[in-house]
């Protein structure tokens, strides 16, 4: 005999049960990632500290080969620490509630923080960094830490995929000519992104270039986290790219003139469509 068909109530209860299971799995995944990342960060930080001491010759003189080896250890450890931080940011941002702490700050300060953080990478690849903060750009009103993280991820991504001797431009100005939103752009002269990939790269664990990303290392979470933090502010993020010519990433942030966001009523779906809402 065939089983009796489920009633509407039974079907609803089954769907609710499966939904609870999925939520529990998502919570368990985030907790696991956070725990493992915390456990990894402690020994990696210790390795980085000892490598710095060796590189600075605090523990004795090094010959050229030893100095090169220590430099490689430091570089690899930094890369691992960056990956750990991305995983921690991912596990935190995946929660239902993320604490935003908006404050007033200038776009110049945000861009300068990104430049200073990545200065050694710009120099090591001889990348020409150009910054243009338009006159009249309003003071930002956003969570400074999360905003810096989002911009830092875009700049880091641009550095990774820009060849030696290339150029990166960071531009900031009012969005759509209004004052309620500011638009930030990060443009590079890298290899570009294929059209079919552009719509996917802001998802979790997606790489713009699988082969190069494996070579560079990386979690595939940087752009997802940037999108998550921007959308928490009610802003939008996107990319335009041409293969062989480079990419331009952009996102919007609320300013001090954005009364809906200041009142906690910003609407993510159309936040950047009207600069003075």
Give a concise summary.
By secondary structure, the protein is of the alpha+beta class.
Structural summary, described in words:
The protein is of the alpha+beta class and 277 residues long. It has nine helices and seven strands. The chain has helices at residues 8-55, 64-93, 107-117, 119-124, 144-161, 195-198, 210-216, 222-232, 259-262; strands at 102-105, 128-133, 140-143, 167-174, 181-188, 237-242, 246-254. Strands 2-4-5-7-6 form a five-stranded mixed sheet. The longest helix is centred in the N-terminal third of the chain and has 48 residues, at 8-55. It is globular. The termini are far apart. 29% of the residues are buried.
How does the SSE layout of this entry go?
Blueprint: H1 8-55, H2 64-93, E1 102-105, H3 107-117, H4 119-124, E2 128-133, E3 140-143, H5 144-161, E4 167-174, E5 181-188, H6 195-198, H7 210-216, H8 222-232, E6 237-242, E7 246-254, H9 259-262
Parallel strand pairs: 2-4
Antiparallel strand pairs: 1-3, 4-5, 5-7, 6-7
């Amino acid at each position: 005999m065939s089983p009796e068909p489920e009633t509407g109530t039974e079907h609803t209860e089954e769907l609710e049960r499966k939904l609870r299971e999925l939520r529990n799995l998502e919570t368990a995944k985030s907790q696991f990632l956070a725990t493992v990342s915390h456990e990894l960060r402690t020994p990696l930080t210790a390795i980085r500290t000892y490598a710095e001491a060796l590189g600075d010759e605090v523990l004795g003189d090094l010959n050229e080969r030893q100095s090169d080896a220590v430099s490689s250890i430091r570089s690899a450890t930094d890369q691992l620490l960056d990956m750990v931080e991305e995983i921690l940011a991912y596990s935190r941002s995946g929660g239902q509630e993320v604490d935003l702490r908006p404050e007033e700050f200038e776009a110049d300060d945000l861009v300068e923080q990104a430049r200073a953080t990545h200065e050694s990478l710009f120099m090591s690849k001889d990348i020409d960094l150009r910054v243009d903060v338009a006159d009249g750009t309003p003071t930002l009103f956003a969570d400074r830490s999360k905003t810096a993280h989002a911009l830092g991820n875009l700049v880091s991504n641009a550095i990774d995929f820009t060849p030696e001797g290339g150029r990166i431009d960071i531009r900031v100005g009012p969005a759509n000519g209004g004052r309620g939103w500011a638009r930030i752009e990060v443009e590079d002269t890298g290899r570009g992104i294929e059209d079919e990939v552009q719509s996917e790269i802001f998802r979790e664990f997606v790489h713009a270039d699988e082969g190069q990303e494996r070579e560079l290392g990386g979690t595939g979470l940087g752009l997802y986290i940037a999108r998550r933090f921007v959308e928490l502010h009610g802003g939008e993020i996107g990319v335009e790219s041409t293969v062989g010519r480079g990419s331009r990433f952009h996102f919007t942030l609320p300013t001090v003139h954005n009364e809906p966001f200041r009142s906690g009523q910003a609407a993510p779906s159309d936040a950047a469509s009207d600069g003075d809402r």
